[in-house]
Each structure stands twice: as C-alpha cells, then as structure tokens.
Amino acid sequence: MAPEGQPQIVSLPQELILEIVKHINCVDPNARRALASLSCVCRLLRVITIPYLFRRTRLNVRLYRLRARIEHIYENEALLESIQLLHIRAEGSERRTRPSETRSTGRKLTKTCDAATPDLFARFLARLANLRELRLDLQYCQQALVTPFRRAVGDRRICFRGVEALAFPTAHTLRYVVPAFSDLRMLSVEMGSVVGPISGFRHAARSLESLRVLEVRMLSHPGIAGLRNMAEAAPDVSTLVLWGHDIDARDTFRER
Prior knowledge:
Elements: H1 14-27, H2 31-39, H3 43-53, E1 56-62, H4 66-73, H5 77-82, E2 85-91, H6 99-105, H7 117-126, E3 133-139, H8 142-155, E4 165-168, H9 177-180, E5 186-191, H10 198-207, E6 213-218, H11 223-233, E7 239-244
Parallel strand pairs: 1-2, 2-3, 3-4, 4-5, 5-6, 6-7
Helix pairs in contact: 1-2, 1-3, 2-3, 7-8
Pfam families: F-box (PF00646)
Protein name: F-box domain-containing protein
C-alpha cells in the first residue's frame, strides 16, 4: 500500500509503472496531458515520464527571450537526453516596417538577442546527445542569430552526429552543414533565388554521402532554367522536392 496521501501508483514496482506510462503514451490521444499530470506527483514519476514528455519538443519564442529559455534547461541532463525531435521557432526584429510604423512607435517592433546567445544556442544543441531531427524556423534574425550561430558551430567544430533530418531557414549558409551534420538523410532549406546559394547547395548535395531527400522551398519562382540547375546540382539525391512560389505541376521537367 502507498503511504497515506500518496497515489496508489507510487507503491507499484518501477517496472510496472514504466509499462503503465508506455501504455498511456501509446493509446491515449491526450497522452502528453496525462503524463504531465503524472510527472507532478513525485520525483519518481517525474524521472519516468520525462523521456516521453520531451521526446518531441517544440519551442516557440521571441528572439530576445531565447537565451533565458535555453539557460532554464541547460543543466537538466535528463530532459536534454530525452529530446529526439526538436522544433525551434524564433522571431527577431530584422523586419522591414512601414515608415508610418517607425514614426509612430519611434522604436523597433521587437527586441533582439545579445551577442552571447548564438554561441549558447550552438552549445545547447550540441548537448542533445539523442537528437535525430532538428527544425530551425528562425525568422527575421539572419544577422543576430543565424550567421553568428553558423560561425560558432564552425569555430567550436561542433558535429551533430546522429541528426538525420534538418530544416534550416536559408541556403546561404549551407556549406557549414556538411562538416556539422555529416549523418543527414533529409535536408530542407529555403532559397530566395538560385543565383547566390547554388554553389553551397551543390556542395551540400554532393558532399553529404548519406543524403537521400532534399527539399527546397523557393521564395521566388526560379524559372524553368533555374529548376533544371537545381536538379543538376543534386544528381545523387534520390528525392528532390522543389516547392513554393507559384511552382506547380506544369513546372515538372525531369523525373527523378
């Protein structure tokens, strides 16, 4: 029997508690809510439920708050080891505003991050030992976060071994992907045009030996010639997906 005031589940053998948690995770459509409630009961249940609660983690944050959110969990080894799929959406202040907005507010619409955030961000991701899929949706923060983050990864020679799927906001920084994400099987990027980033695109597609799926979201229509250049830049990729600005079935020009 459990001590007075404690739920009966606490008195069960740990192996049985683990099986109960696995069962809840498999059959309950609201499993995350149920597991979150269990994690609040006691330390034992918290330890058991953490791998299920944080296996798939999504972080939606303003850029100026990113450092605080990372620092909050940076030393939590159990949580970091649990994360296998991570989606981070951060929005910065590098957004063009209408002149009327600038005059009326007299300041930027949002704050930005400090200079230490990109390096902390790189070190945080490097600590995720079991990470398999990473999606970085970084909006309006190319100068504040994306470029310094890429530089920090290179300077520290960080290698995200085991990460098989990566979504990154821009193709302009693709060259750093090759040494940092050597085990990639799926890569998803955005491209504004095929003129600037095509060399980095070609380098990534041909250097990542394990790459099988390459997805490119075009922010502007590249034209048929541009689409052909994209396909020719990735001859060994088994699946090439080009989509985005007004690209449809009529643009099909090559069977892969």
